[in-house]
């Protein structure tokens, strides 16, 4: 049922235990029941007594009940049965409150009870169920604290940043939030893995909120269900504000507290103004959240509320939320003096996540309800949060109401980590990773245990995050396998590494310093890590590792902590760039190719920077952030070369100018120097303008004079590596000779050999028909350009380029150090000037158009005949011509016979009457006379032309649409075009598109109903609207959308601008072409209409032009930007398409 409703009316209603406010929602649909007959009285009384006993202890609203009708009950049947019942009020007495489309609150008559009404409703065949309108309470107590100090309420200085377990935040109150720093919750460690950063929305079903600095930024929407003013979401209880603060106070903004979610979006839904309200109001709020899930991207709803009674309506709505992919996180309830410890509703429902409250000592708060339905527990005692009194105040809260938003925030972080996670997955992340408290395993008091935010987020990430593994053992030894496994674990920020299967003893791990001192065990592994070109000193400290041993060998490597800069986001960025590096790497190439690829990749992906936040002294900073100093360049070069199997060393030392770092790399058995810093430091990220001055050079060349770099540094010296562990001795080499690892370093080392230039025709072909030519060239020499030049029809060759898009011309003056692929560049040759098709009048132009049509497409099997006096009938012809593949012929319709030019046209089409046609006449006898129809019968294959017409042009438009559906090839079901019938320009400009795509143009009547248009349009998936709201109203557009069509509108400031919009933003993007385009006047419709079939056959777009040249400039701009057009056609003489227009088109 679609129930229409008015505004809320506020009235007081008594519950069985206390009074509460109820809100009546006036609706136009009324529900009813059949009367009770006397012979049923005794059974009815027994049922009433049973129901009364069931609800006697349940707090509910007196005088009203909730009724849900079956889905097949219409409003009239419901209204009739309601008026006949004896226990509820009729529509004239009190209109029911709508809750959902088929559910409402109805009032009980004064002389009847709630139990009586429930029995009567339940026994009626139209009713699915009936129940009391139970009372729902907010859980927990909020104490508004006194004003906080300015240092806590205001912004902080940078020195006030609070360093937590991992992530640093600058919220000054965070030290008072024990639940943020709790060792079991591990919130800050979770932030290191994932932040919400406004990518996840949590709805808060509560008492609203008070806007303030620490909250407003994260609120994306709000609504009020407690009064007629749905915009009033102001919290008057403080409960909603405190809950929202725990969940998503603005984090790391230098102000107030930190929200657990690290900036999830909040959708505020106000359903309380006192601590209690009816379930019917709660359901309205929850149902609205479900209906607006997509609009606000809601994944979670926080429900810090509870009732001891199970409401079927609330259960159904929670199930709706579950089905929509929304997790309901619910408070288990707080024990009052006279009730049990059983988990309350909706937390007790299967489709929710039930949350209990623990204290700072990880014990269940004595008021927190528990039982088999409890899922998890979370901090909910002495919770420091935001106050409804504004920025300079805080609140302290207790109860499951506080534990619930903590858990909602944890769920939000999981959703951010795995955006595709289902409700069940989110629940599993939180329950399966919880810290076990109480009895082992799940128990009634703690459920699955305390929410471990870090472990839950890690589990969520594991579902979507591929484990990083880039290190392989150097050989098959157990020690090398241990190293590879350990290094990969560092990339994944694992806290432990299982190596129990390898049988490696601690003393097997050794590291020798240049001084000769050897370390073993944990210290040796730490030294290996800190000397690794990727991990360096950035990853772990000296006391970060420990071993677990079993039977004399290491069973587990424990990584106790990571350095603060070794973050998951940094690793993820590194892996993204590293994978990009590998995509183009010549893994099977020569040493030169590998060394050159690493050099060029680093130079083109790095910008020289001294900003420490980019970690410029480290390989991972260079690769992940694209920023580096010389150390970062050199460590990155060493690491990437090693990953490609090249032996490479990091060299640090001095030049005559400053401290510096560079590399030695072993290429084809000889050691060469490489300096990526000086080759690439003066280029920007992504630039190819680096050089190779210091790539694979010897000592002498390294100190050579040149542009920048080491020019004049004749005494370059450096620390030479002495072992594989990347530490360097204090001996120097001085540019003449030296040794490294007992291999002689030759000052005149120089590589010779052959590299290859591969020429790609890039769409063209060489003289022998091939698309590729490969030519040899001398390594380290300037190449000679090939004499073979490819060709491409309609294009001119413009040289060789290093990229397929031809944006970077190849520099023929540079030496070749590796194989190079070059692509032919092309520019379009000047296009052929448009041809003009015209005659002495519109009939003559139509005749010339038909001649061209037959020349290009052959003689047709039929013809569509349109008049020149009633344009609205003729506007339906364009799409029909495409459907039938028939051209359009114009006649002087109101005359008794065709004029001589029209006669020539029909003779042309029919080969002087020898080839009969299917003749289709558009419009009634007032559009095309009976006399002309009689003439046309002589040319018709059945001697009886088909006339399609209606009472007016709009009816004719509908008649053509319906007639077209009877043909074998139906209209395009994907789309329909909608244009005004009040003028012809918009429809004309789309004529060739409509014909080419069999997309019918429905004509809208601005002065009458368009129901028939909407009905026809509903057969299609989308409506393409031509013209602004003056042409096609917003009301009609909305009606089309309501009919299920996706709508798009193309409109300009006038008819010519609308034509340009349609052509550029739609037609050309959907298969139409500039080549073969048509140019026609916008002053009349004849020429453009008659061209529809001809243009459609070559998919040419139609441009409408004016005699006033200012209107035509956009047409020139489009064609000029495309490099001109071919096979274009001008329709009409110079009186309608001026010579000036033709001249400008010719010169584009």
TrEMBL record:
Family: Belongs to the peptidase S8 family.
Record keywords: Hydrolase, Protease, Serine protease
Residue ranges of domain Transglutaminase-like in the record: 622-678
Pfam families: CW_binding_2, Fervidolysin_NPro-like, Flg_new, Peptidase_S8, Transglut_core
Cross-referenced InterPro entries: Cell_wall-bd_2, Fervidolysin-like_N_prodom, InlB-like_B-rpt, Listeria/Bacterioides_rpt_sf, Papain-like_cys_pep_sf, Peptidase_S8/S53_dom, Peptidase_S8/S53_dom_sf, Peptidase_S8_His-AS
Cellular location(s): Cell envelope
Domain of life: Bacteria
Active site (UniProt): 206, 239, 401
Presence of keyword Cytoplasm: no
One Gene Ontology term, aspect cellular component: cell envelope
An MF annotation (GO) of this entry: serine-type endopeptidase activity
Listed GO biological process terms: proteolysis
Annotated protein name in UniProt: S8 family serine peptidase
């Amino acid at each position: 049922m679609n129930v229409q409703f008015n505004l809320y009316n506020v009235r007081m209603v008594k519950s069985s235990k206390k009074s509460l406010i109820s809100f009546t929602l006036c609706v136009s649909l009324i529900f009813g029941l059949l009367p009770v007959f006397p012979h049923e009285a005794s059974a009815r009384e027994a049922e009433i007594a049973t129901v009364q006993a069931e609800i006697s202890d349940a707090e509910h609203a007196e005088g009203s009940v909730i009724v849900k009708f079956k889905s097949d009950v219409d409003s009239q049947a419901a209204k009739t049965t309601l008026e006949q019942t004896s226990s509820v009020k009729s529509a004239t007495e009190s209109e029911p409150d709508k809750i959902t489309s088929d559910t409402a609150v109805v009032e009980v008559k004064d002389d009847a009870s709630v139990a009586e009404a429930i029995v009567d409703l339940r026994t009626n065949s139209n009713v699915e169920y009936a129940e009391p309108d139970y009372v729902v309470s907010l859980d927990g107590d909020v104490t508004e604290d006194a004003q906080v100090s300015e240092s806590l309420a205001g912004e902080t200085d940078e020195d006030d940043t609070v360093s937590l377990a991992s992530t640093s935040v600058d919220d000054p109150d965070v030290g008072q939030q024990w639940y943020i720093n709790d060792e079991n919750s591990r919130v800050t460690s979770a932030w290191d893995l994932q932040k919400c950063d406004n990518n996840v929305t949590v709805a808060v079903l509560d008492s609203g909120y008070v806007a303030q600095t620490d909250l407003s930024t994260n609120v994306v929407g709000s609504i009020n269900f407690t009064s007629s003013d749905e915009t009033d979401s102001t919290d008057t209880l403080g409960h909603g504000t405190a809950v929202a603060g725990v969940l998503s106070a603005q984090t790391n903004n230098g102000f107030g507290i930190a929200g657990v979610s690290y900036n999830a979006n909040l959708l505020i839904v106000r359903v309380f103004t006192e601590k209690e309200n009816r379930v019917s109001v709660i359901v309205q709020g929850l149902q609205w959240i479900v209906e607006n899930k997509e609009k606000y991207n809601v994944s979670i709803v926080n429900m810090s509320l509870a009732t001891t009674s199970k409401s079927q309506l609330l259960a159904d709505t929670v199930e709706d939320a579950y089905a929509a992919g929304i997790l309901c996180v619910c408070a288990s309830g707080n024990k009052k003096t006279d009730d049990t410890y059983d988990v309350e509703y909706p937390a007790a429902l299967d489709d929710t996540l039930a949350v209990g409250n623990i204290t700072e000592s990880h014990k269940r708060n004595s008021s927190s309800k528990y039982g088999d339905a409890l899922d998890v527990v979370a901090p909910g005692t002495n919770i420091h949060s935001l106050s409804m009194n504004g920025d300079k105040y805080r609140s302290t809260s207790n109860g499951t109401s506080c534990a619930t938003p903590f858990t909602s925030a944890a769920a939000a972080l999981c959703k951010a980590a795995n955006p595709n996670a289902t409700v069940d997955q989110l629940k599993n992340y939180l329950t399966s990773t919880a810290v076990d408290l109480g009895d082992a395993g799940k128990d009634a008091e703690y459920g699955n245990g305390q929410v471990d935010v870090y472990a839950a987020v890690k589990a969520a990430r594991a579902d979507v995050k591929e484990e990083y593994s880039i290190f392989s053992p150097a050989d098959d030894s157990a020690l090398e396998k241990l190293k590879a496994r350990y290094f990969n674990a560092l990339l994944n920020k694992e806290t432990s590494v299982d190596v129990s299967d390898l049988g490696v003893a601690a003393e097997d791990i050794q590291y020798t310093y240049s001084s000769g001192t050897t370390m073993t065990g944990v210290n040796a592994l730490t030294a290996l890590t800190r000397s690794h070109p990727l991990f360096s000193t950035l990853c772990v400290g000296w006391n970060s590792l420990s071993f677990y041993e079993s039977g004399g060998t290491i069973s587990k490597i424990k990584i106790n902590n990571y350095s603060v800069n070794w973050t998951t986001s940094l690793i993820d960025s590194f892996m993204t760039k590293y994978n990009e590096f590998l995509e183009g790497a010549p893994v099977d190439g020569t040493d030169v190719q590998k060394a050159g690829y690493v050099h060029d990749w680093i130079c083109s992906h790095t910008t020289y920077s001294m900003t420490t936040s980019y970690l410029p002294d480290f390989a991972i900073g260079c690769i992940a952030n694209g920023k580096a100093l010389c150390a970062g360049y050199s460590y990155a070069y060493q690491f990437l070369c090693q990953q490609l199997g090249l032996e490479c060393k990091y060299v640090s030392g001095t030049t005559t100018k400053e401290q510096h770092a560079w590399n030695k790399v072993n290429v084809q058995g000889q050691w060469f120097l490489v300096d990526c810093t000086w080759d690439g430091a003066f280029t920007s990220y992504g630039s190819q303008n680096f050089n190779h001055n210091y790539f694979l050079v010897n000592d002498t060349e390294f100190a050579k004079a040149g542009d920048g770099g080491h020019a004049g540094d004749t005494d370059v010296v450096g620390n030479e590596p002495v072992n594989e562990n990347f530490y360097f001795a204090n001996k120097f080499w001085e540019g003449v000779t030296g040794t490294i690892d007992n291999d002689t370093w030759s000052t005149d080392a120089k590589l010779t050999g052959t590299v290859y230039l591969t020429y790609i025709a890039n769409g063209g072909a060489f003289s022998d028909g091939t698309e590729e030519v490969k030519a040899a060239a001398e390594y380290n020499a300037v190449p000679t350009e090939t004499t073979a030049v490819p060709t491409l029809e309609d294009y001119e060759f413009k040289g060789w380029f290093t990229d397929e898009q031809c944006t970077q011309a190849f520099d023929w003056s540079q030496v070749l150090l590796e194989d190079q692929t070059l692509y032919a560049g092309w520019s379009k040759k000047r296009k052929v000037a448009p041809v003009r098709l015209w005659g002495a009048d519109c009939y003559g132009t139509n005749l010339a158009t038909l001649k061209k049509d037959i020349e290009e497409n052959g003689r047709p099997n039929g013809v569509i005949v349109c008049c020149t006096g009633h344009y609205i009938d003729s506007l339906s012809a364009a799409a029909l011509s495409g459907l039938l593949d028939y051209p359009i012929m114009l006649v002087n319709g109101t005359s008794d016979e065709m004029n001589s030019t029209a006669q020539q046209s029909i003779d042309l089409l029919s080969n002087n009457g020898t080839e009969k046609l299917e003749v289709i006449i558009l419009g009634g006898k007032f559009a095309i006379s009976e006399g002309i129809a009689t003439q046309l019968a002589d040319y018709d294959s059945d001697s009886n032309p088909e006339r399609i017409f209606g009472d007016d042009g709009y009816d004719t438009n509908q008649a053509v649409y319906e007639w077209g559906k009877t043909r074998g090839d139906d209209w395009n079901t994907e789309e329909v075009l909608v244009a005004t019938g009040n003028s012809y320009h918009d429809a004309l400009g789309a004529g060739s598109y409509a014909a080419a795509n069999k997309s019918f143009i429905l004509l809208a009547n601005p002065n009458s109903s368009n129901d028939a248009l909407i009905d026809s349009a509903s057969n299609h998936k989308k409506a393409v609207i031509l013209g602004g709201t003056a042409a096609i109203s917003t009301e009609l557009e909305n009606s089309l959308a309501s009919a299920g069509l996706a709508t798009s509108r193309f409109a300009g400031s006038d008819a010519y601008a609308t034509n340009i919009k349609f052509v550029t933003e739609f037609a050309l993007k959907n298969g139409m072409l500039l080549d073969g385009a048509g140019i026609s006047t916008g002053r009349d419709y004849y020429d453009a209409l008659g061209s529809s079939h001809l243009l459609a056959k070559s998919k040419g777009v139609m441009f409408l032009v004016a005699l006033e040249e200012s209107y035509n400039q956009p047409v020139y701009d489009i064609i000029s930007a495309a490099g001109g057009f071919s096979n274009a056609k001008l329709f009409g003489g110079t009186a309608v398409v001026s010579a000036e227009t033709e001249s400008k088109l010719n010169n584009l």
